[in-house]
Amino acid sequence: MRKEKSTNSLNEQYLNKNCGITFTMSKIDGRWKINILAFLMNNKKLRYSELKNRLEGISERMLISKLKELEQDGLINRIVHQQIPPKVEYELTALAYSLKDILLLMDQWGEENLNETKK
Predict the structure, then answer these.
(1) pLDDT: is 28 or 14 the higher one?
(2) Radius of gyration (Cα) for the chain, nearest Å?
(3) Cα(85)–Cα(78) distance, rounded to whole angstroms?
(4) Bond from prior residue into 85 cis (ω within 30 degrees of 0)
(5) In the predicted structure, residue 1 carries a pLDDT above the cut 70
(6) 81: which strand partners?
(7) How many CA atoms lie within 13 A of 37 on its CB side?
(8) Of 28, 107, 112, 114, which sees the most CB atoms within 10 A?
């Protein structure tokens, strides 16, 4: 964990406030957040267990952490149905849907360049 006033933390805070690309990447960074968003974009609503089954290799701890981060960032809604056993579903917010074109372009670029290697 970084110190709040370290140069690295201050640089990150500055870039997040002043650079659109850095801000966007801070919200969707890592392998799991983008995959969670993509699955929800294609399925509208998914239960926790459905997400867990689709995200091969993710630990429960990591999935819970990433879902909380996405919820705090306003990208997903957590819907709790008051029933026994409890039922929790996740869906994208309008803010997350506004990322659709970006995510599609990133996917297209990745597919086109998947086999490129440094020479």
Answers:
(1) 28
(2) 17
(3) 16
(4) yes
(5) no
(6) 87
(7) 29
(8) 28
